[in-house]
Amino acid sequence: MKTMALPIPYAVTAVAAALSAADADAFIIVATDAAAVPDTALSQFIQQAALIDQRVGKETLLLHCALVPGQKLIIAPTGPLNRDFDDVRCFADVAKQAAQLAKSAGARQPVVWVQLPAGETYAKATEVVYLAMAQALWQPLEGREALGEAKVEPVSRIGLVGITVQEAEYLHAVEAGRRLARDLCGTEPERMAPRRFADYCVQAFDGSAVQVQVETDIDKLLADYPLLMAVARSSLQVDRHKPAVIRLEYCGEGDITETLLFAGKGLVYDTGGADLKINGGMAGMSRDKGGAAAVAGFMQTIALLKPKGIRVIAEIGAVRNSIGSDAFVPDEIIKSHAGVRVRIGNTDAEGRLVLADLMSHLREDAAKCVNPTLFSVATLTGHAARAVGPYTALVENGAALSRQLSASLAKAGDIWGDPSEVSRSRREDFHFIKARSCADDVLSCNNAPSSVTARGHQFPMAFLVVAAGLDQASAQHATPLPYVHIDIAGSGVDGGDWQHGKPSAAPVVALAAHYLR
Q1: Are 329 and 276 in contact (CB under 8 A)?
Q2: 477 band by pLDDT with thresholds 50, 70 and 90
Q3: Pairing of strands 157-161, 8-12
Q4: 471 phi and psi, to 5 degrees?
Q5: Rounded to whole angstroms, how far apart are CA atoms 482 and 405?
Q6: DSSP assignment of 56-75, as one string?
Q7: Phi and psi torsions of 261, nearest 5°
Q8: What is the CATH number assigned to the segment(s) 184-515?
Q9: Residue-wise pLDDT tens digits, 396-426
Q10: Selection from 197, 163, 412, 406 nearest residue 297 by Cα
Q11: How many angstroms separate the CA atoms of 312 and 468, rounded?
């Protein structure tokens, strides 16, 4: 398996061991009260520094201190944690600042002590601090390839006081998955054109427990993924823009007790097609592959952890939605892989078309699998970002609701700093996409922006259910298939800046915490 450079987490038994570590070159404290560090001399130093500089304990600072490795002491205060709205991201926010400060100061192997408040809310604060630091230190793939990883990402190891070796190994696997997801999502549309996206996946999983199949034969794709190929139609005139479907499979040792199925939206670039994006709306659309990237990232984490008793199947549609003389247009009626006649309402609602065919294939897999659960992951709607801000939106069907699946995912995400908002499909969503005549079976979308459409991130899930043939696998069916649509349009990049922000790799952490812990 290809190993990408990342700051390797390792376990440090106690503060005393961290302060005497020969290979460490900085000591970072992330705490509400830095003076509570369990070392008397260091605590006294911090108290004295606070008398001289009132920023100590209020801002993230670098202090010269002979008591710590490299004589670099970084104090990152979380602020108060006793308010109803405080959560573990208070640690993540200042951890990012501390990581950047350590890097700028020349530290390459810092050690971190985190003051853990009581209670479940902050139980994983140390782990969240590491993941936040790794997020802050990641640099784009193009930059690493042009300038060298060692130059742009010089921090090689991060010691974590109080975690076990097993916990460090878990964190390494999760971060490796997040890194793959960030690389796939955050890379420009030519470097990560559809088949180069596929190549990157093949390289990433080479020699691993995850099997990779890539389908690029246009005739086969036309037969098996008709909606996906409608989106790709105008891209076929350019060889490097031709689509690919990537299938990833993992089967753990022992008796399989659970199967997870993932469909990932991989729009490597979305011009909007015939419904062209205007007024600057096209910038950042190379990140419209964030859902596919997250799916691949989660598979990378699985490949490293090798969980027993679980099977995972993922299909990713790597496609470019181009504008041209052969672009598909609104009013066309296209039959999906599931045999459903889809009337196109808006060509800028292309992601759901790609997902529907992928999900139809996974639906067929589910019929032969043990205890299956289906997910679609996508940067699907502006409405999700408008409705829930920087959170992942979870929209579940009745079978998933009966198992409280989204609630469980959201709880895991809260503890691990990868939060979600829970939603569900309603009858209005299915009414919204119903056929208006006997000419078709379902409408893909209205022609207004999702952000100004009522239930703009919920009704697309209803479309996916119908177009993928999942309406026969509802909670009322003899063999219900739990299904959760995961919309990361609001959570997919830091700060909501889709052109320049760092991809967050959401929801890799939450999925791993729920299924792999």
Answers
A1: no
A2: confident
A3: parallel
A4: -65, -15
A5: 8
A6: BTTB-EEEE-TTSGGGEEEE
A7: -125, 130
A8: 3.40.630.10
A9: 999 999 999 999 999 999 999 999 999 999 9
A10: 197
A11: 19
Do 279 and 224 contact (CB within 8 A), yes or no?
Answer: no
How do residues 64-73 score in pLDDT, each as one tens digit?
999 999 999 9
Please identify which of the residues 96, 289, 352, 455 carries the catalytic annotation.
352
Structure letter (DSSP) for residue 434:
B
Buried b / exposed e over 323-341, threshold 16 CB at 10 Å, is beeebbebeeebebbbebe
The amino acid occupying position 146 is A
Segment holding 397, helix H or strand E: none
Helix axes 290-305, 165-185, angle to 10 degrees: 150
- Domain ranges (residues) in the chain: 8-163, 184-515
Predicted TM-score of the model (pTM): 0.97
Q: Which one of the listed residues 89, 277, 386, 403 is annotated catalytic?
A: 277
2 labelled catalytic = no
Q: Which CATH number fits domain 8-163: 3.30.1600.10, 3.40.220.10, 3.40.50.300, 1.20.1260.10?
A: 3.40.220.10
CB 251 within 8 A of CB 208: no
Place of tokens 């902050």: 122
Active site residue 352: yes
